[in-house]
Amino acid sequence: MNAPTRILDTMTELHRFLFCSAHAGHGQWLSAALREEGVVLQEAGRPAQLQQRIGDLDPQVVLLDFSGEPTGHADDPLDGGIAQATELAQMLKRVAPKLPLVAVGSLVRADGMKAALRAGVHDFIDMHSTHDEALDVVRRVIDHTPTVSVTTAPQRHGRFIVLLGARIGVGCSTLAAHLSQLGQEMSVGADPDRAEKTAKAAKANANKDDKFDSSLLGHVALLDLGLPSGDRLLYLNTQSQFSFAEAVQNLRRFDETLVHTAVSHAPSGLAVLPLPLDLGDMRSVAAADALALTDRLRAFFDLIVADLGGFSNPAFVASLVRAADEVWLVVDQSVGAIVSLASMLRDLEEKSVERSHLHLVLNRYDPRYGMAADQIAKRFDVPLLATLPDRPLAMLSATNQGKLIIDTARGDPYVRALQPLVERLLCAQHAGAASHRHSSGWLGRFMGKH
Q1: What was the pLDDT predicted at 359?
Q2: At what angle do helices 110-119 and 82-95 cross, to 10 degrees?
Q3: Residue 358 CB neighbour total at 10 angstroms
Q4: Domains of the chain: total
Q5: Is the pLDDT confidence value at 434 over 80?
Q6: 17-47 confidence digits (pLDDT tens)
Q7: Domain of 135, in residue numbers
Q8: Which of 132, 145, 282, 362 is the most exposed place for a label (fewest CB within 10 A)?
Q9: pLDDT at position 14
Q10: How far is it, in rounded angstroms, from Cα 49 to Cα 362?
Q11: Tell me, what's the pLDDT at 218?
């Protein structure tokens, strides 16, 4: 991996850890343990195959499974994959000598530990330890790994927000469109001249032969991945010829030029990546690749809003949820939505998503409809982020004009309820760099046991 592919390392808090293993349970344990520091992308395969994947995903740390535990597959190697992990470590030492390697296994498994030691890994995670101890290991490795700084790279590292509708029809798509559009307008609207230039830049972007000031575009991006497909484009009165699936396929060449030429923009400058017209194209999009794309988008946008309302692949949804800075569960007061919310929370917990990572947004809220907002939040033990008022007439009137309610009634209660949420997202400060952590000596622990 050469220097240009590592530009993102210095521009986002989200680290990518590639775990090379066929053990699904081990991957889930690592994802839960390392969630505070980054996202675990799991890949299984021979070293030759994994070399290409490592180049595509550009991880900060590669985790190798030296546990020696069989997966139960018919083609399991006799040593539980230790030889394959050793071969992969040796290959990476040759092709990417600066890439940190961390072994995953057990301090009581002598053959795995000895193989990891001979392979020259940088540190070791004992899967019989606590999540905090595993987190300390990767933080220590990251702290001692030099990064490449590229001064010409865009200096953004945007927040990634996922919206999950409890079920189709609770208003998740409407919220996503309004939230991202208002975020774009508020990010440039403080300067009226800048806002006018942004509108002109978006029009120029529609005509690829015109030149435009690309710095005016790309403050906010909307990942239109919810169902029914294309609703957000309809609300934004925007068309797109470049889909999320195509962006993933072009991940290795996804740069500022592609952002401002291929990606569609609404008149406000809001960037939109929708589902492909043929939803079958999403079958070729691996969760790891989708995560790599969202990570890269952080370099070009201040805020990325992903609408996953109605998306039917639980593993895909869970992987993006774990990568998000915030996850908003969108629900209304109907019995069906409340039941669906309970089911969704169970599914997320099974995928190692912590409930403390979630926020509740109660849409179409009216106290006269029944259960109060604080009662719902308390019932599901999810903090209540906001209530958005029920405005069916104003919403339908705006939609029938091909507009958002932001455009037709800026002072509407729904817009007023959204404004503090957008301000909160745009003003949120990222945590500082991790403090220096001293080595705890995994080799010493191993030698002490043997």
Answers
A1: 97
A2: 10
A3: 23
A4: 2
A5: no
A6: 999 998 989 999 999 999 988 899 998 877 7
A7: 3-151+433-449
A8: 132
A9: 67
A10: 45
A11: 55
Question: What whole-number distance in Å separates Cα of residue 406 and Cα of residue 179?
Answer: 10
User: Alpha-carbon Rg of the chain, whole angstroms?
Assistant: 23
Same domain, 147 and 198: no
Show the tokens assigned to 214: 């690309």
Indicate whether 411 and 442 sit together in one domain. Answer: no
CATH code for position 35:
3.40.50.2300
Average pLDDT, the chain: 81
HEC assignment per residue over the chain: CCHHHHHHHHCCCCEEEEEECCCHHHHHHHHHHHCCCEEEEEECCCHHHHHHHHHHHCCCEEEEECCCCCCCCCCCCCCCCHHHHHHHHHHHHHHCCCCCEEEEECCCCHHHHHHHHHHCCCEEEECCCCHHHHHHHHHHHHHCCCCCCCCCCCCCCCEEEEEEECCCCCCHHHHHHHHHHHHHHHHHCCCHHHHHHHHHHHHHHHCCCCCCCHHHCCCEEEEECCCCCCHHHHHCCCCCCCCHHHHHHCHHHCCHHHHHHCCEECCCCCEEEECCCCHHHHHHCCHHHHHHHHHHHCCCCCEEEEECCCCCCHHHHHHHHHHCCEEEEEECCCHHHHHHHHHHHHHHHHCCCCHHHEEEEEEEECHHHCCCHHHHHHHHCCCEEEEEECCHHHHHHHHHCCCCHHHHCCCCHHHHHHHHHHHHHHHCCCCCCCCCCCCCCHHHHHHHHC
The domain spanning residue 202 has which CATH number? Answer: 3.40.50.300
- Asked whether residue 259 falls in the same domain as residue 301, the answer is yes
* Confidence band, pLDDT 50/70/90 cuts, at residue 2: very low
Amino acid at 263: V
